[in-house]
Structure formats: structure tokens, C-alpha cells
Amino acid sequence: MKKIMIIANPSSGKEQSEEYIEKLKSILSETTQEIKVNKTKEKGDAENYAHKAAEEDFDTVIAMGGDGTMHEVVNGLRKNDQSTALGIVPLGTVNNFAKALGIPNDPLEAIEVFSDAQIVPIDTGRINDTYFVSSVSAGPIPETVQHVDSEMKTTFGPLAYFIQGVKALDQETVYPFTLLFDGKEVKEQYSLMIIALSNSVAGIQNFIPEATIEDGKLYFLGLKETNLHQKLVLVPMLFQNHADYSDQVDMIPFSKAQIRLDKENDLKTTIDGEVGLSFPAEVEVFPHSLNVLIPAKSTVVEE
Ligand SMILES: Nc1ncnc2c1ncn2[C@@H]1O[C@H](COP(=O)(O)OP(=O)(O)OP(=O)(O)O)[C@@H](O)[C@H]1O
Q1: Which interval of the chain is the signal sequence (predicted)?
Q2: H or E stretch at 194
Q3: Best of 9, 37, 146, 270 to mutate for ligand 1, by most ligand atoms within 8 A of CB?
Q4: Residue 85: what pLDDT?
Q5: How far apart are CA 193 and CA 142, in angstroms?
Q6: Which mean pLDDT values do the consecutive 10-residue runs of the chain (303 residues) have?
Q7: Which residues share a beta bridge with 7?
Q8: What does residue 259 show for φ and ψ, rounded to 5 degrees?
Q9: pLDDT (0 to 100) of residue 38
Q10: DSSP 3-state helix, strand, coil percentages of the chain (rounded to 5)?
Q11: Exposed/middle/buried for 36, CB within 10 Å: 0-12, 13-18, 19+?
């Protein structure tokens, strides 16, 4: 490793990035000629720094932050056609992307990975012009969860999302969609849709057991019209890895899709946990399009 840029979000998770940056620098200094540290101040900074790193031929970018920071860094890297590798130190609340890659959730353990890491190519997804590394979702549950603020996250951790998500369970709104999966049309009313790259969704591992982040596929999961009682049975089932998808759930692997909402509505997507665009949308997978550093001898496929 010759030139490394560290992009750190000081506001992520429990706000301990200073300590971790020093630790990371001391591990990297033995093998690296140039280490540049950039701390983000606001939305968009992480994407801009990553874009610059790719342009300026940095070999590796190490992103320190939560899923929002990872999302921005990947967008910065993917918008430039360079092969800059990505290393991850999870500092966020959920850290779904890190989990999908088998990176330790403890930042100090994640930093140790860089003394003996391997580079593997993983898939990325794109919805219209935005790349994603975990998932895209839409419906009352993701919309409600978008309102979790950073104070709630610092106080409750991942539970903050659960508390907020439960509030939306009794909403019976469904949205009529027309979807084209690799040329095959589906017309259906869904109350929740999730498009995932790996088996880990919203920090829950094994959500889609057969999915891996390097299999060249995206996975669509749509929850049809359900009342509160049905949701109380179904949602925990989904969250507890029971892949016994009932009549109320569609599960469709695909490479390319077009999604149209057949109703005037400003339903917004959630992309990697951040508020995203509304419909219509084109979604596509880019197999093996991003090099990531993961622990040596580990695989990105979790059991
Ligand atoms: N210095 C900063 N102070 C406050 N907010 C910042 C700063 N730098 C970046 N941000 C904001 O932080 C957002 C990303 O936060 P991130 O997702 O990494 O952490 P988190 O919210 O703690 O974790 P999670 O997404 O897992 O809940 C960015 O979209 C940006 O708006």
C-alpha cells in the first residue's frame, strides 16, 4: 500500500473517531508512503474526498463512519473509473455494509484487519444515478425510520431504528407498482419493498439467505397487502431468517429492473439508510465493480 486516504466522519456513532484515526495511522505507517486524513464536515464531503482520491491515484481509501459515510465514499469512487480499493472502519449505528463483508463491528478490531487484509471484488447496485452498497427500500416502515435523528441513535444505538420502525407497523397503505425484472413484468400492490445486494439488510444478517455481495445479483423483496395481525406474524419471520416466504411476500432475484409507481405519490426511497429519490426508477447491478479490503482468509459469504 503506497498512498492511502482516510475519510473520517467525526459525527458517526459514538463520536470517537480521533482515537481511531491515530491507531489506524500507526498501523498503516509501516507499509505506506503517504497517508492523508480528511474529516467530513457535512453531507457530500465524503463523496467529494473519495472522488478526489480516485482522481489523484490513491491506491486505497479507508472510510471511517456509518453506512451513510460508506454510501457517499462508494459513490465518489464508482463515479470515477479507477480501481482505488476501499477499506472500512465501522463507526455507525447499524454498519450493515461492514457486516455484509464480515468486517468486525468493533472499530479497533476492524483497524487490525489492515495489518493482514485481502482485496476482493464485490458487486455494487445503482438506482438511477446513485450507487448503493446495501439496499434500497420504500414504504411506510423505511419512511418512518428515516426520521431517526442522531441523538436517538447515540442514545439507543440500533434499537432506535427498531423503535421507530414498529410505529409504522399498523399502517396498511399499499402502493400499486409496475415492475420489469430483466424483461419480465410484475404488477402488484406492495406495502414494503426492499432491494438488497447481500444477505444483510438493515443490520440483520441472513435476511435473504441465498444472497451474497459477490453473486452478481440484486434481490427484490415485496410485502403485499397485510393487516397488522399478518405483519406481526410475517415481519419477525423475515427478521429471523426464516426464508419461508409466504403468499404475502414476493422474492425475485434480478440484474436489471424498471420500477414505476402507478399512482400520484411522492413516495421516497431509502438508499443505504439515507433519504433517496422517488419513482420511477431504474435499478441495476454491477458485478465485481468495487475492490474492498476484508480480513485475510475470510469470505464475504456468511453462513
Ligand atoms: N462533521 C460532521 N458533523 C455532523 N454531521 C456530519 C459530519 N460529517 C458528515 N456528517 C453527516 O453524517 C452523515 C452520515 O452519517 P453516518 O451514516 O456515517 O453515521 P451514523 O448516522 O452515526 O451511522 P448510521 O448510518 O449507521 O446510523 C452524512 O450524510 C452527513 O450528513
Answers
A1: none
A2: strand 192-196
A3: 9
A4: 96
A5: 9
A6: 92 82 92 94 97 93 96 93 90 90 94 93 97 91 72 67 66 88 95 90 79 95 78 66 66 96 88 91 97 83 47
A7: 38, 63
A8: -125, 125
A9: 98
A10: 25, 35, 40
A11: middle
Q: pLDDT at position 242, please?
A: 53
Burial (Cβ within 10 Å: 0-12, 13-18, ≥19) of residue 116: exposed
C-alpha atoms less than 13 angstroms from C-alpha of 233 in its C-beta half-sphere? 10
Residue closest by Cα to atom 30 of ligand 1: 43
For position 275, what pLDDT does the model report? 87
Domains of the chain by start residue, with CATH: 3-115 (3.40.50.10330), 132-287 (2.60.200.40)
Q: What is the pLDDT of residue 160?
A: 66
Distance 151 CA to ligand 1 centre (A): 12
- Nearest-angstrom CA–CA distance, 301 and 75: 23
Question: 113: which DSSP letter?
Answer: G
Q: What is the pLDDT of residue 303?
A: 42
ipTM above 0.85, yes or no: yes
Beta-carbon-side half-sphere exposure of residue 288 (alpha carbons within 13 Å): 4
In residues, how long is the chain?
Answer: 303
Rounded to whole angstroms, what are the CA distances from 90 to 7, 13, 108, 209?
12, 9, 10, 23
User: Is residue 185 helix, strand or coil?
Assistant: strand
b/e code 213-250 from CB counts within 10 Å (16+ = b):
bbbebbbbbbbbebeeeebeebbeebeeeeeeeeebbb
Instruction: Copy the grid coordinates of residue 282.
Output: 431504474
Pocket flag, ligand 1, residue 89 (CB < 6 Å): no
DSSP string, 236-289: HHHHTT-----TTEEEEEESEEEEEESSS--PEEEETTEEEEESSEEEEEEEEE
Answer yes or no: are the C-beta atoms of 125 and 98 closer than 8 Å.
Answer: no
Q: Is the CB of 41 under 6 A from ligand 1?
A: yes
